[in-house]
Write a structure and sequence with these properties.
Layout (H helix, E strand, L loop, with lengths): L28 E5 L3 E6 L5 E6 L27 E6 L6 E4 L8 E3 L5 E6 L1 H4 L5 E9 L4 E9 L5 E9 L11 H7 L1 E6 L6 E6 L6 E7 L6 E4 L19 E4 L3 H4 L15 E3 L4 E11 L5 H7 L4 E5 L3 E3 L4 E6 L4 E7 L4 E6 L2 E6 L5 E9 L4 E9 L2 H13 L3 E2 L11 E2 L2 E2 L4 E2 L13 H17 L3 H15 L41 H4 L6 H19 L9 H15 L21 H12 L3 H19 L15 H11 L3 H14 L18 H4 L8 E2 L2 H16 L4 H16 L11 E2 L6 E2 L6 H11 L2 E6 L3 E5 L1 E6 L3 E6 L6 E4 L4 E5 L3 E8 L5 E6 L13 E8 L9 E3 L5 E3 L2 E5 L5 E7 L2
Parallel strand pairs: 19-25, 33-37
Antiparallel strand pairs: 1-2, 2-3, 4-5, 4-10, 6-7, 7-8, 8-9, 9-17, 10-15, 10-16, 11-12, 12-13, 13-17, 14-15, 18-20, 20-23, 21-24, 22-23, 24-25, 26-27, 28-29, 30-31, 31-32, 33-34, 35-36, 36-39, 37-38, 38-41, 39-40, 40-45, 41-44, 42-45, 43-44
Helix pairs in contact: 5-6, 6-9, 6-18, 7-9, 9-10, 10-11, 11-12, 13-14, 13-16, 16-17, 16-18, 17-18
The structure holds 2-acetamido-2-deoxy-beta-D-glucopyranose (NAG) (8 copies).
One 2-acetamido-2-deoxy-beta-D-glucopyranose (NAG) binds next to loops.
């Protein structure tokens, strides 16, 4: 989200023509090539200007905007930032080659060197550290290394050694098409000797860049690089996140700016005795496409770790870590110690969480050649327990009951500030306290989706109170299916509310009544329609706990809310803006459409389907159909994929999968694995407001949906499953030990903490619930693996699958291309034969470990063929005497667990 375009799309002519040239662009470039790259260095600074593929299809450097980044203080690749002190001193000294440029001193380099220079003129002539930089090539790769020598008479401690990076993530000045064609995004794997960077094209198609460490270089920290933010390119804005530095040593930061946090890796420094020198460097390699990035990492002989199901691990499950390296493991341990029990497997280790472990855990691996790799994990409670904790927190601590609230916000599940353990009843960004927009709807949306996955009678009753007393007539205007942008507003002359004098109410975000009560933001409708849909599902299968309206009323309300946003007013103008864009969470409208069909709400189903088809067909004709309120975004793809795939517009659907893979990485770190690019929503839903790479903001949960669905249709694409499952697990890490869920995690090393606000967590959780499941895959490299469960091969090629995901209603068997799902109750076990594909499924009324979960009297079993695999035909239910109902098979659960046999036709 949100509201206004912070930095619009400038046209190039608006740029300042007389930009500063401290960098020395006027003295030309040094050009060279490898078999994979064409490279340009700035002659004067010997920093990178251009790193282009041989066919010129992509430049990983922002060469076309270099003249706007030629001032002192603008970082480029090839710069160096060092922090040192005299051994024994307290105070650190910073050296930074970008701060005050002067032409470097060219030197004749070693064999194979392209450009070698001494950096003293651009660092400090008086420094006891003399730094030499060398650019080299081998056949295909480019390498960059620094040798720092202590030229003084006494020892120095190097506490910071950073390689600033500058890749082309500058969206400012570009149209959406240019952004997609020219830009790329960088994601780090902060894993010491196993560290690397992935620089992926925003389109998701074509070559990627991989940056790996040379020699003894490690990747210890990832530091944001402050630059002047008031330049025309808008450093640190919605169209330019800003750049980061690969840090080899971090002790100098850890005991200064970062002293309040627990870093990803133990901070180190290095002592350089008088006369001693050290060398650190990076290698730049081309990967033919995104899916081959890890193969490229392996080619450079960098240790690689691949975790299944990822790096966010439920307490009741076992994680697998596959290691790829040419040296054997000499030790493996965790910090905190004993968080995992490690047991060796043929390709690595299985990791069993210890009963007391919770939260961040680093796994340290030492190889017999001395290399050390780290992998960052996050251990949570069991999935069902987390949902139960979340529901409990939302319906107790966040349940707001003050019925004299002048804004009529009670009862509701309202935003929360964990740092003071209180409701957020006032915020200048009125929607956060106003139950709407992602930032204010987040908590009640999560509360509703929790009931869809794990209904609890008391919570459902409170949710119904919220719907009937607060949504109807307040969030939705009386007798209307419209949705307001906020029910909280700033208008002192209209209420005697005690607005806090400590808040600055003068910003554009502090809406008055007309602005707050406006109903023209299509995004807001998804949340309300999802809440109604959730209660429809609960009412249908747990009728005894839904008391204030019938299932068909909830279903109709959901439909009416969607269609209001999708319709025109009597004058023919759209009721809501943005209705032609993909909207966060609208996968739920796909579920709504299936339910309308299955319930014989034929008229409504036809109208909704026709409207979605209209949108999908428009998207299929656009080059970049991923518009949003913002100049660039990662929110539209989910809806665009859902409907283009639904209507068989496969080229648009495929392009959308590529687009997502362009901004959603997999690396061996819980924070970045499956973490779709988000960097400005702390401004609109967070407490600590800054432009900053967010960890597991709602992009994770929402973008997981297309990837998981795509995998179901193409089970050979395990890469998509790994990224998708990582994203889907993301929202599990936001839930703390008492059940509070935060908007996102702050990735800057001075913070490394969850935001205090609940904010816009809701859509993330919606993504989790709709995508949760257990995926079983027999992969050529990883062999038989499971994401979200346990799998065991028993005799006669039979495989037993026990779901351990949070929802436990879907099992996907890649070997058969079959998805088994239930609408209510839970799947306890699935067994299938690898030989003939016969399957058995055991379905329980509830998850026995969660006593507060309501029991379903019945459910509907859906067995769907998603992909053609081997020669398996269509799955058929073999168990006799089952009734076909609402598109599936009715399963009676009144006597407890039921089992069903499934086979194949033909
Ligand atoms: C690079 O700069 C040097 C002076 O520092 C100059 O002699 C040389 O011609 C320049 N090379 C190019 C390619 O412009
Ligand atoms: C790596 O470090 C070891 C031990 O400090 C040292 O002996 C070796 O020369 C270093 N290798 C390189 C390539 O710098
Ligand atoms: C952290 O560093 C700041 C200065 O950067 C200092 O004021 C503060 O006392 C330090 N805190 C600790 C716990 O060392
Ligand atoms: C009340 O305040 C709003 C702005 O917040 C203003 O537009 C309106 O004119 C005011 N009404 C009165 C009666 O002062
Ligand atoms: C929907 O209509 C079909 C055909 O008339 C009927 O067989 C089915 O039972 C109906 N389903 C429901 C849920 O009413
Ligand atoms: C879409 O991708 C699938 C593989 O995932 C491929 O089989 C299909 O041909 C592609 N379709 C188009 C139109 O590109
Ligand atoms: C294996 O599966 C087949 C078919 O589903 C079944 O008949 C057989 O009993 C199973 N064997 C075991 C050991 O579960
Ligand atoms: C449930 O159990 C009762 C008593 O054992 C039995 O009469 C009834 O047929 C069972 N119902 C189903 C659906 O299995």
């Amino acid at each position: 989200m949100y509201m206004i375009k912070l930095i619009g799309l400038f046209c190039l002519s608006a740029l300042n023509a007389a930009a500063q040239d401290d960098l020395g662009l006027s003295s030309g470039y040094i050009s060279f090539s490898t078999s994979d790259f064409d490279v340009k260095l700035v002659n004067s600074s010997q920093t990178l200007a251009s790193l282009s593929t041989k066919d010129s299809s992509l430049d990983f450097s922002p060469f076309d905007l270099l003249s706007e980044r030629a001032a002192n203080g603008n970082y480029h690749l090839g710069d160096v930032a060092v922090r040192y002190r005299a051994n024994g001193d307290q105070e650190w000294v910073d050296l930074n080659s970008a701060a005050a440029r002067a032409p470097v001193l060219p030197l004749s380099g070693s064999n194979g060197s392209i450009a070698t220079s001494n950096l003293s003129p651009t660092i400090s002539e008086n420094s006891p550290l003399s730094i030499t930089r060398e650019w080299s090539t081998d056949d295909e790769d480019v390498t960059l290394s620094f040798t720092a020598q202590n030229t003084g008479n006494s020892s120095l401690e190097i506490g910071g050694f950073g390689f600033p990076t500058e890749f082309n993530s500058i969206f400012t000045t570009r149209t959406a098409e240019e952004t997609q064609a020219k830009c790329s995004l960088t994601d780090p794997n902060i894993g010491l000797a196993g560290g690397y960077l992935r620089v992926t094209p925003l389109s998701g198609a074509g070559a990627s860049l991989v940056v790996t460490p040379l020699g003894n270089t490690t990747f210890e920290g990832w530091r944001f690089l402050p630059e002047n933010t008031s330049t025309v390119l808008g450093y640190q804005s919605q169209t330019f996140e800003g750049f980061y530095s690969w840090e080899v040593h971090t002790l100098g930061y850890a005991n200064r700016e970062w002293n309040a946090t627990q870093p990803w890796n133990p901070p180190t420094s290095r002592i350089l005795t008088a006369g001693e020198s050290m060398t650190y460097g990076l290698r730049f390699s081309l990967s033919p496409n995104i899916r081959s990035i890890e193969d490229t990492v392996k080619r450079t002989k960098t240790p690689l770790a691949v975790g299944v199901p990822g790096y966010i691990v439920h307490a009741d499950s076992i994680a697998r870590l596959h290691l790829f390296y040419n040296s054997s493991v000499s030790s493996i341990s965790s910090d905190p110690a004993d968080s995992f029990d490690f047991s060796a497997t043929s390709s690595g280790y299985s990791l069993t969480p210890s009963p007391s472990a919770w939260g961040r855990v680093r796994v340290d691996i030492e190889f017999s050649n001395g290399a050390k790799q780290s992998v960052s994990y996050f251990i949570t409670k069991s999935g069902p327990q987390q949902l139960s904790d979340l529901g409990n927190f939302l319906f107790t601590s966040q349940y707001y009951t003050n019925t004299s609230d002048p804004f009529h916000r009670a009862p509701s599940i309202i935003s929360y500030d964990r740092s003071v353990n209180d409701y957020v009843l006032q915020d200048p960004r009125v929607w956060i306290a106003g139950l709407s927009d992602e930032g204010g709807a987040g908590s009640w949306l999560a509360a509703a989706m929790k009931q869809a996955a794990q209904p609890n009678a008391d919570e459902v009753s409170k949710l119904e109170d919220f719907i009937h007393q607060t949504v109807l007539g307040t969030l939705q205007p009386p007798n209307s299916s419209a949705v307001r942008k906020s029910v909280f507003f700033y208008q002192p002359n209209a209420t005697d509310y005690d607005y806090s004098p400590d808040i600055d109410w003068s910003s554009w975000e502090s809406w008055n009544i007309p602005d707050a009560y406006a109903t023209n933001r299509a995004y807001d409708y998804v949340h309300v329609s999802a809440a109604y849909w959730a209660l429809y599902r609960v009412a249908r299968f747990y009728p005894e706990i839904v008391k204030q309206a019938s299932w068909d009323w909830y279903l109709s309300q959901s439909y009416n809310t969607v269609m209001f946003a999708m319709s025109n007013d009597p004058n023919g103008n759209p009721n809501a803006d943005y209705s032609e864009l993909g909207l966060m969470g609208e996968t739920v409208w796909g579920h709504l459409l299936s339910d309308l069909k299955n319930e014989n709400f034929t008229t409504q189903a036809n109208i909704l389907e026709a409207r979605m088809k209209q949108r999908a067909e428009a998207w299929s004709m656009q080059t970049v159909p991923y518009g949003s309120e913002m100049a660039w975004d990662s929110t539209g793809q989910e809806g665009v994929y859902y409907w283009t795939n639904y209507f068989g517009l496969t080229s648009a659907a495929n392009k959308t999968i590529d687009s997502i893979l362009g901004y959603m990485p997999t690396v061996s770190h819980w924070g970045w694995n499956g973490n779709a690019r988000r960097y400005w929503d702390f401004l609109y839903g967070g407490k600590l407001q800054r432009i900053e790479r967010q960890i597991h903001h709602y992009g994770s949960g929402l973008n997981s949906l297309p990837l998981l669905q795509h995998f179901q249709q193409d089970p050979s694409d395990i890469y998509a499953l790994r990224v998708g499952y990582g994203g889907n697990s993301g929202p599990m890490s936001n839930i703390d030990q008492e059940g509070f869920a935060a908007a996102a995690f702050h990735s800057w090393p001075d913070t490394l903490a969850w935001d205090a606000y609940s904010g816009d967590y809701g859509p993330n959780f919606l993504g989790h619930v709709l995508g949760a499941g257990t995926y079983v895959v027999d992969d050529s490299e990883l062999s038989l693996v499971v994401f979200g469960g346990e799998v065991e091969r028993i005799e006669n090629d039979n495989v037993t699958v026990t779901p351990t995901d949070a929802v436990r209603r879907m099992v996907y068997l890649a070997a058969l291309g079959v998805k088994i799902g239930v609408d209510a109750g839970n799947i306890e076990v699935v067994r299938y034969s690898e030989r003939d594909g016969s399957m058995s499924v055991w379905i329980a009324p509830s998850i026995s470990s969660v006593s507060t979960m309501a029991a379903a009297k019945s459910t509907i079993l859906r067995v769907e063929k998603m992909a053609q695999v081997a020669s398996f035909g269509s799955p058929v239910v073999m168990t006799a005497d089952l009734t076909l109902l609402r598109g599936g098979w009715m399963i009676d659960l009144s006597n407890g667990t039921a089992s069903v046999e499934i086979g194949f036709q033909g």
